[in-house]
Fold:
Amino acid sequence: MGKFFDVKYLMNMTDKYGEKPEIFIVCSRVRGPGKTTSVGMMVLNKAIDTGDKFVLVCRKKAQVGNYANGCLKGAAELLDPDYIVEERTGIKGLYSNIYLIKKTYDEEGKEDEKEEIHVGYVVALRGAYEIKNISSLFVDSWCSIQDEFITQDGSYLPDEPVLLQNLHTSLARGRGKSVRYYPHFMMANCIDILNPYFVAFGLVGQLHSDTKKYRGDGIVYMRYENDAIAKEHEQSKFNKAFKGYSRENEFTDNSWLVDTSTLCGKPEPSWGHPAYQYNLHDGKIWMRVAYFYNTGLYMLDYGKEQGLTTYAIHEPEVGECVWDAPGVRIRRLLREAFKSGQLRFRTEQVKRDYIERL
Structure:
């Protein structure tokens, strides 16, 4: 691979069954390897050559109308320095049209005329259920693109993967088919292994700190790394000025959390005595949650502590499990403790069972 990402690496991948995938994911741990630019150049070239348009997917309705230039300006200028990306509102807060405009000039250098090409659309995930009512507008598109699908601050729309699934169903209609092949490209500058998309795709437990490529059923994943670009970030005079600042929150990669033996083992004597808080159950296995006040760590182990409230791990399959607001908060607390490395597991099997039930 070269210094910068080339989308052909991703497009050439097949899924676990050797078939063409429909979800393409590429992540990196630093900014600047060219993921968005490469995908942008691909879809712009296709729109120019064939007229097949694309759909940029943003999160919020407020972004519609002022989103495309931030994603496509660099790609457009690489195709031709005279290209300008212009976004025009279709329905406010729901969708907009993307145009590639090239100005021409007369002999005196005055603007003569401009050539414009309708290349794609911007739609908001928040409006997914409304898009289905106007889905025929997008029958001339062939793919969708979701940049920065992993957020660095952990903020997502409620049920965001469900919104994406609903939106894709609407976009994949048309051209004589109720469901057509409609690839979706997802890019991110960080790797949060517990982001809602990886959970929805069943990738938690499949991707580890050394996973460079993964092939699932209809989905492929690539982690693109380039030491030269990472070194450029480190050598930046601006970044060097922040010597006392941790960049941990800026460039995220917590895929080490799901490595087999990480965070597993017996509690250390220095942790003190465990204070059992509650039980977890899903109809098959029992787990108990202990808290160590000396260290602020939690530990999951098999077993059931008498006299403690039992919460459902993921859904109320048995009558004695409590499925309520406190249970939701506890599951969220354990999830956040896991992400921060404060949740430990008595054995590797306990960890596998917990991850499977996320």
